[in-house]
Amino acid sequence: MTNVTKLLLLYIFSFLLTSFSFSSIANPVFSPGEDWERVSPPVETGKNGRGIEVVELFWYGCPHCFAFEPELNKWVEQQSTRITFLRIPAVFNKNWAIHARAYYALEEMGVLADVHIPLFEALHLQGRRLFTEKALTDFVAEHGVQRSVFREKYNSFSVDTKTRAAIAMTRKYGITGVPALVINGKYRSSPQ
Hints:
Blueprint: H1 3-17, E1 36-38, E2 52-58, H2 63-77, E3 83-89, H3 94-109, H4 112-124, H5 133-142, H6 147-154, H7 157-173, E4 180-183, E5 187-189
Parallel strand pairs: 2-3
Antiparallel strand pairs: 1-5, 2-4, 4-5
Helix pairs in contact: 1-2, 3-4, 3-6, 3-7, 5-6
């Protein structure tokens, strides 16, 4: 079983924990500590017991996140409106923070959907070194994003606040690597 498949199955397992049923899966066996872990203490979500929140923590520089992205996108498209899906750029160090800032700047500009996959591809398929504000600014400009607007957003108070929140959530969820999946603030995929 590939890592991508196993992670996707972890999503399904998590939904089984919250009383979702999937007719195509018969009696899956997932082990705590091996396939999933409890988030302790649980992180409060905006769902208040209504529906399911699925959070993916990722980093653009992670080859596993890049490989997982197409499968994850297919899965997200198939889900009902009861599911709220969120992406949070995980932040463990300076390079990760640079990419988190880019993610939030693009999101605020309303162009994230246009640049998200190309950014992954530039890093993993083209071998581009996009680990500075300048390199990222040049890259997004190639995709029709105005340099000055991107730089303004990248260095804005709101993007700084969101990046700091991403650092806090990375810690609160207790993840040690990516991609990581968190369900309803209570269950996370295990690094194993």
